[in-house]
């Protein structure tokens, strides 16, 4: 755990150090999700919302490029392989 980050979050939000540590751990855990799990999760979520694959793959590629911990650039073919094997 990054103690400096926890201290900064606690100071800037008024959270206790313990609460700030839980927030930091939650955020860091969110961004540690492996690329293939992120792609599968987002694909399933967007399919449930009625999106088509061509829209989904474009959106996922954009999201991956904008993630805090940047994932590698994946082609549509690579995205399809993650989903369909």
What are the SSEs and their pairings?
Layout: H1 3-13, H2 17-31, H3 35-48, H4 53-66, H5 76-84
Helix pairs in contact: 1-2, 3-4
Overall number of strands: 0
Oligomer: single chain
Strand content: under 5%
Write down the overall mean pLDDT. Answer: 93
Report the total helices: 5
Uncertain runs with pLDDT below 50, 5 residues or more? none
Outline, from the CA principal axes? Answer: elongated
Radius of gyration: 17 Å
Q: Structural class, please? A: mainly alpha
Query: Largest beta sheet, briefly?
Result: none
**Tally of individual domains:** 2
> What series of H and E elements makes up the topology?
HHHHH
| Measured distance between first and last alpha carbons | 35 Å
Q: Helix content range of the residues, please? A: over 70%
Can you put this structure into words, describing what you see?
This protein has helices at about 5-15, 15-30, 35-50, 55-65, 75-85. It has about 80 residues and is mainly alpha-helical. The chain starts with a helix and ends with a helix.
What's a concise summary of this model?
Helices cover 74% and strands 0% of the residues.
Keywords:
mainly alpha; 0% strand; 74% helix; 2 domains; 85 residues
């Amino acid at each position: 755990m990054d103690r400096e980050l926890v201290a900064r979050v606690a100071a800037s939000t008024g959270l206790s150090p313990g609460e700030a540590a839980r927030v930091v751990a939650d955020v860091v855990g969110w961004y540690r999700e492996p690329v293939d799990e992120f792609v599968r999760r987002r694909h399933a979520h967007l399919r449930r919302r009625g999106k088509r694959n061509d829209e989904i793959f474009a959106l996922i590629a954009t999201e991956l490029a904008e993630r805090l911990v940047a994932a590698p650039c994946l082609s549509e073919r690579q995205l399809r392989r993650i989903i369909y094997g």
